[in-house]
Amino acid sequence: MTSVLFVVSAADGWTLKDGSVHPTGYWADELATPHRLFREAGWDVSIATPGGVTPTVDEASLGVMGGTPSQREQTKAYLTQIGAELDRPLRLEDVDEAEYDLVFYTGGHGPMEDLAHDPASGLLIARRMDAGAPIAFLCHGPAAVFASKAQDGTIAVRGRTMTGFSDAEEKLVPAARKAKWTLESQLQHNGVVYEKAAIPMRPHVVVDGNLYTGQNPASAQPLAEQLIEDLDAVGR
Fold it and tell me: Is residue 93 within 8 Å of 50, Cβ to Cβ?
């Protein structure tokens, strides 16, 4: 059976450049949709957070920004269904990533607060990249790569092609106008070849060898479907 580890932010706030803290967490659909699709594919799914802290859902992702009313209700229902897993996640520091066929980082602004600086997550990403093992990042999930270091001191994904929440998309988020940094700019600054959809908030998935990325919430389903197709094809 294919096994996947979800790495989810434990942050419930995002510190902005003026010192204020904006409520955040993980983006509901970016966790619920891939989790559901992987389970429906017969995969075994585990969830881990820094310190084993119960993750916080970004309330904005359950409102109008979270899709149509029916989509939001489906997402809420699924998160309730897996509530026991979310309440008691694994401690990321104790996880052996080599035991999993796939590591999947969900989004929301939370990763910009904690996973971007988390040493255990950084080591996991570096080991995954060294081994050429499948790893995926969705929306703001790629912020976690800034904690990963290759042997030469650069980030472990330097020179690779990725996507992630774009600067144009951040401009649509009022709080993000006060961000200390933005994902697209920081990825490019660190030597990543960044790609994005021609139109903001449209689905966009990039595959570069073992490295899979989805740009935004709309990319959650196509990213998960691409992973299922590819990993099932090699019989993981």
Answer: yes
Report how far apart, in Å, the C-alpha atoms of 186 and of each of 78, 158, 219, 226, 232 are. Answer: 33, 12, 20, 26, 33
What's the total number of domains in the chain? Answer: 1
Instruction: Give dist(CA 28, CA 43) in Å, integer.
Output: 20
pLDDT band at 11 (very low <50, low <70, confident <90, very high): very high
CATH code for the domain of 81? 3.40.50.880
User: pLDDT-based confidence at 192, cuts 50/70/90?
Assistant: very high
Mean pLDDT of all residues in the chain?
Answer: 97
| Residue 180 exposed, middle or buried by CB count within 10 Å (0-12, 13-18, 19+) | exposed
Q: Can you list the pairs that 92-97 forms with residues at least 24 positions away whose Cβ atoms lie under 8 Å? A: 92/7, 92/48, 92/49, 92/50, 92/51, 92/52, 92/118, 92/120, 92/121, 92/124, 93/50, 93/51, 93/120, 94/52, 95/5, 95/48, 95/124, 97/5, 97/124, 97/127, 97/128, 97/133
Amino acid at 233: A
DSSP tag of 48: E
